[in-house]
Structure formats: C-alpha cells, structure tokens
Design brief:
single chain; alpha+beta; L-amino peptidase D-ALA esterase/amidase; six-stranded mixed beta sheet; 16 strands; 24% strand
Length: 342
C-alpha cells in the first residue's frame, strides 16, 4: 500500500505486496498498546520465524549509529552475529520487563537454558516516550512483552500503536512504520528486504519529504534539539551473512539523513538486520550456507535506504493524535499533508 498518489515514481525499487517487513516470508509483527492513567506506551514484537529461535538462530548484523541508548542484547549480537529470541521494542524503562519476558519465552521452549544449555541472549530495543507517557509509572510489564509475542501476525497496524504509542517524530505523533523493497538479481532470482522503524527522533521543522523541507507549522512545545531515538529493524530473505547484514544496517543512517535528522547528542540511533535464508544451529559441528556475492549487494543497500525512509513516513501517516500525561497534544502529519496529496 502506498500513501500518496504517484508514489511509485518517487523510488527506484518496487515495494512488496503489503509494503511491510512481513513481505519477507515467515516474519511476523505483534503489538500491545497500553493507554491507562498517565501511560501512553506499549510493546512491539518482531519474530524472524515460527520455529525455536534459540536452537535455530538467524544471522544478523548491527549498526550503532549513535550510542545514546539502553537496549539489551546488542553486545552479544555484535560478537556472534545472530539473533536467538524474538525482538521486542518498547520504552526505555520497559527494557527489564521485556528482557524477562524473552527469557521466560525461551526457557518455556528449552527448559535446560542456563543449566545444561547456554544462557539466552534476549534482544530488546528502546526509545524514550517520556515526553508523552509518564515513564516513571513503569507501565510496561512482562505480560505485555509475552502478549506482544503471542499477537505476532503477518498483518499488523502501523502508527501510534505498540511501542510507537507515545513516540514523537519531528514534533508529530508516533510512531511504528514499515515498508519493503523487492530486489531482482541478474540470474532472475528475486528477494525482499523489509524495514520496521520505531520512530522517535527529529527536530520540529526539519522534516524533509523526498529531500525537500516540509513547510508546516512547528508543533506545540517544539524542542530545539534533535533528540529522542530511532530503532530500525531490517529483515530479508536474501542469503546474507552477519558482516553483509551489518553493511545493510549502516545504510539506515542514510535514510535518517534524507528525512532531515542529524542524530543529535541525546538520540540513540540503532539499526540491525537479519536474514531468514540461513537458519543457524546450536547443535552440530559444521555448517554449509549459501551467501550472496559481494558484488551483488549494491541493490540491497539501496533497498535499505528506501525502505527505512518510507517506513518512517508510513508510521507518521498512520499516526493518530495523542494527548500526553501532562496535557501535551501531538498533532499528526497527515492533517498537514492531506490537502497536498489528495
């Protein structure tokens, strides 16, 4: 689905059928949204496949573009180049609860984890929704993390849902957004690369749409700095190894720059990428895997930039107005752009 008429001509690569990360076969996304009392927050899950991720991890790469963040599991991911749990996205103070949820999920599938089996590396990434949600309420619970995993499906909502509920991007509401790109190889083979973005960054007034500054009023209580954070998760069915996936992840920075961000001092900007093509194993001695030739990676790098850029815009477009716990009301970008896109 495309948001604007004629949008296909804006990009070099075609989108997948749903234009989401779930265009990658087997990838599923789930949300839990929590808006009670002073809380405007939630959890979003990303599952690379339906199997046991602890016993069949997927290769993954990481790019810490700006390290102002409190995520869990990134150090081991960088060292081993694999993901062995679902990925949970949440707010900064929800990392501990979501970590526990992932540990319990893994132990339920493999009761000997931490005993006769190695410990598990739970992967939780965060952005600070404290300008909208009262983050001191510690509203994110272990149950919410578990429920987000259980809710994962091929079709999912975008905008001010799940982890994106209380986020603010360029001064506007939200959000969680997703997009995908199809990449054809000279041999005739084709693959999909999808992005899901938890967007919480950007200085009001700096937003660029296709490289041009958007002439819209600055939102209420505009912050003069680019701070907040952004998490970019890429998935692909192309056979890429951990090093190649790290190259994919680094291209998320180009997408943020095209949108108008400069990765401000207090912005934690993290991107990771995984491939579903080669499930690894904690058992056995030798593994033989297929890997894309390095010279054929270029189109995937372009796909990473386009998918992440459009994912942020999709999240903003689908967002709904949010009133924060202290009365701050976040407008939505679609109200500003709709007269120009009809």
């Amino acid at each position: 689905m495309r948001l604007f008429k004629g949008a296909e001509s804006w990009w070099d690569l075609p989108a997948g059928s749903a234009n989401t990360i779930a265009d990658v076969p087997g990838v599923r996304v789930g949300h839990v949204t929590h808006c009670e009392g002073p809380a405007r927050t939630g959890v979003t899950s990303i599952l690379p496949h339906d199997g046991d991720l602890f016993r069949q991890p997927v290769p993954a790469g990481l790019a810490v573009l700006n390290g102002f963040g409190k995520s869990a599991g990134l150090m081991q991911l960088a060292e081993l180049g694999r993901i062995e749990t679902p990925i949970l996205l949440t707010n900064t103070f929800g990392v501990a609860a979501c970590t526990t949820a992932l540990i319990r999920h893994a132990v339920a599938q493999n009761p000997q984890i931490g005993r006769s089996l190695p410990t598990v590396n739970p992967l939780v990434l965060e952005c600070n929704d404290g300008r909208v949600s009262d983050i001191q309420a510690l509203a994110v619970t272990e149950t919410m993390g578990s429920d987000a995993i259980a809710a994962a499906a091929g079709e999912f909502a975008q905008g001010t849902v799940g982890a994106g509920t209380g986020m603010r991007t360029f001064g506007f509401a939200g959000a969680i957004g997703s997009a995908s790109r199809c990449v054809s190889l000279p041999s005739g083979r084709s693959h999909v690369l999808g992005a899901l973005v938890l967007s919480n960054f950007g200085r009001p007034g700096d937003l660029r749409l296709l490289g041009r500054r958007v002439d819209i009023p600055k939102p209420q209580r505009a912050d003069p700095h680019d701070k907040g954070s952004v998490i970019i998760v890429y998935a692909t069915d192309a056979p890429l190894d951990a090093r190649q996936l790290s190259r994919i992840a680094r291209r998320g920075g180009a997408a943020l720059g095209r949108l108008g961000s400069y990765w401000g001092d207090q912005s934690g900007d993290v991107a990771l990428a995984f491939s579903t093509a080669n499930r690894l194993s904690i058992d056995g001695e030798m593994e033989t895997i297929e890997r894309l030739a390095e010279a054929k990676l270029d189109r995937f790098l372009l796909a990473a930039v386009e998918a992440a850029e459009e994912a942020v815009l999709n999240g903003l477009w689908h967002a709904r107005p949010v009133t924060g716990y202290d009365g701050l009301r976040l407008p939505v970008l679609s109200d500003q752009l709709l007269p120009h896109t009809a």
